[in-house]
Q: What sequence folds into this?
């Protein structure tokens, strides 16, 4: 087995844990490759570095929060590499393991006591294909306190036309992130759906809508002189202009997560009350 290691290189605790995991895996005779920024922090493993986009491994261990998971997944999306997250962030819905359980969990994985969970992603198209979204795409204005005038279509039927601070198109994975904070529902990751959530709409009837993930969603900007940006998983930005259309549908590339337990609802209960964050 070859395992990739990724960590937030700007967080001392994440780098230190990565060092210990690299040592642990080496002692277990597991070949490892480290994401280049992490390898530069660990002098002992600088000869085992690899750019994340070029990493060809059996599994990737990502140490950080959901942002680290989303960044890592954006680079390996087309490779079907299972990803396991060790939570060094705040909430960490996408991460599987707490740091204190890291080595026990890795032992279980090396023994084959795990399963792989598949998560759907959003394909995003604006003049060309953009990186896929595991969590969500957020449309917003470039200038604060300005509204977007947008038209939303589902399978070529106009669903809504409204003015709002923005719009979120989320997957079930993203339903516990920005979408939830904006009033969207929590969706079990096994549900084959996407959710459309207006952000502070200037229309009483505009409410979050759940649609089939077999649908094609189109969003068009209707206000001349107003530009928007589409932010994909907080990692990538694309500028959208007047009368531009941005298209969303289910991506052919799924995300794959290593899981030790089936405990989605326990995570929801615990993490949404954790530390008074929500």
A:
């Amino acid at each position: 087995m070859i395992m990739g290691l990724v960590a937030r290189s700007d967080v001392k605790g994440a780098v230190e844990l990565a060092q210990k995991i690299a040592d642990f895996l080496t002692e277990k005779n597991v070949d490892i490759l480290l994401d280049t920024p992490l390898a530069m922090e660990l002098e002992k493993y600088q000869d085992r570095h690899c750019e994340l986009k070029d990493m060809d491994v059996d599994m990737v261990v990502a140490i950080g929060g959901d942002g680290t998971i989303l960044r890592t997944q954006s680079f390996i999306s087309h490779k079907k590499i299972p990803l396991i997250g060790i939570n060094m962030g705040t909430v960490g819905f996408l991460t599987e393991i707490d740091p204190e359980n890291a080595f026990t969990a890795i032992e279980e994985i090396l023994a084959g006591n795990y399963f792989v969970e598949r998560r759907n992603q959003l394909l995003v198209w604006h003049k060309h294909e953009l990186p896929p979204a595991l969590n969500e795409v957020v449309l917003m204005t470039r200038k604060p306190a300005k509204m977007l005038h947008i038209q939303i279509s589902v399978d070529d039927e106009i669903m809504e036309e409204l003015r709002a601070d923005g719009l979120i198109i989320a997957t079930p994975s993203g339903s516990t992130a920005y979408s939830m904070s904006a009033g969207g529902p929590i969706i079990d990751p096994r549900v084959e759906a996407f959710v459309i959530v207006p952000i502070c709409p200037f229309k009483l009837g505009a409410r979050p809508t759940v649609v089939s993930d077999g649908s094609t969603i189109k969003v068009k900007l209707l206000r001349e002189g107003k530009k928007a940006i589409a932010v994909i998983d907080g990692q990538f930005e694309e500028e959208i202009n007047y009368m531009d259309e941005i298209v969303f549908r289910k991506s052919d590339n799924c995300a794959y997560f290593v899981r030790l337990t089936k405990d989605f609802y326990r995570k929801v209960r615990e993490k949404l009350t954790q530390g008074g964050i929500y």
In short: The chain has two domains: 2-114+260-274, 121-252. Residues 121-252 form a domain with the Tumour Suppressor Smad4 fold (CATH 2.60.200.30).
